[in-house]
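Memo to structure team: turn this sequence into structure tokens by end of day. - J.P.
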Amino acid sequence: MSINAVYLIAGIALLLAAVLPVALERYAISAPMVLLTMGMGIGLLPMPDGLHLDPVELRPQIQRFTELTVLVALMGVGLALDRPFRLRDRTSWAAWSPTWRLLALAMPLTIAGIALLGWGLGLAPAVALLLGSILSPTDPVLAGDVQVGGPQVRDEAEQGRAIEDLAAEDAEIDEHDDVRFALTSEAGLNDGLAFPFVYAALFLATLGPASSWLGGWLAWELVGKIAVGIAVGAAVGWALARVAFGSSSRPLQLAEQGEPLLALAALVMTYGLSELLGGYGFLAVFACGMTIRGAERGHHYHGAMHEVIERLERLLTLVVLLLLGMAMTKGLLADLDWRSALIVAALIVVVRPVAGWLSLVARRRDARLPGGLRRSEALAVAFFGVRGVGSLYYLAYAAGQHAFAEERWLWSTVALAIVTSVFVHGVLATPVLRRLDARREARES
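Reply from structure team:
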């Protein structure tokens, strides 16, 4: 295949990325499904000389590209969430109840379930824990079909409305779509919260028994780095929002100018500062996006920023999916075995749904209140834990820190998990959420 053919295929893929989201709205087919299939087909064609897709050899490039993709998605999620979060407001904490439950219960249970299963199937403890950690986060990149669409904003003609009027509407925004809110907010936070457990697996592999490192891990990896990341993200978001929306200097009044590149500047600044200070950059970027979103909530500028991030995310996702599809038909799945199939099936059908269900139904919040889920909605949230790009990043990161003998098996297993999740969840997302929407509308009528 010549380089000109590569250009042609890339152009067709870009066109599909622009057309597919609208074209597939009515069907139980997601854009990731189509792009993965297209990538598999391209992978069957002869490749140009020197082009290879070995994940072990390309590990550094995979790590950086998937890192950027996840970061862009996290900023987009932070800007898209309409439901406000106020640190000192108990009502606000309660409205986020599904998110806290999924993070505090479902995620550790998922890690433990996969780790125990892997250990029982003969994996070394460190490898089993690593597999559970990298498969635990849900994905903000490939889960567009089950997430909120974007920020609800007002056009420029409405900007003169009183701040009190806008604040009074905060409680109404998004309160009737707790399923999409729960899945979106969970994906925004658990990509960063998987990091402590990845470190635990690395420590287990390099430092030995937990007794020699558990105390430091609890204090710094589990608590300290999370606190630093969230604090940096909130601080940078607050400062940039003050400048963009309230600066007296005309060049800095980015909101009035409608300059959307602030979102990208915020992403890069926040991630860089958080990593320099030792915090988790993924959490920092999400916190930054949420903080900026909380300023002048109804301003049209939020829509402009989210649109830029969304377009960049779509482009990056396109590349990831095409390359993943190509790699699958170029040997990525060569190291699969029956253990891989069993673990992936258990993750999607048993471990995540059961963990999510248990976390959401125990002393659940009244379904009539924001943050409350009916049983059918809780079941949907528990099931739609889409796996994706974040898992590729964590595997590339961990494998770069320590030479795991099972690395190729891990790449094959994680790739199978992502592809299976994309197709299973992609087929079911449209009909299930459409039915839940119809039930909600019927109750409200």
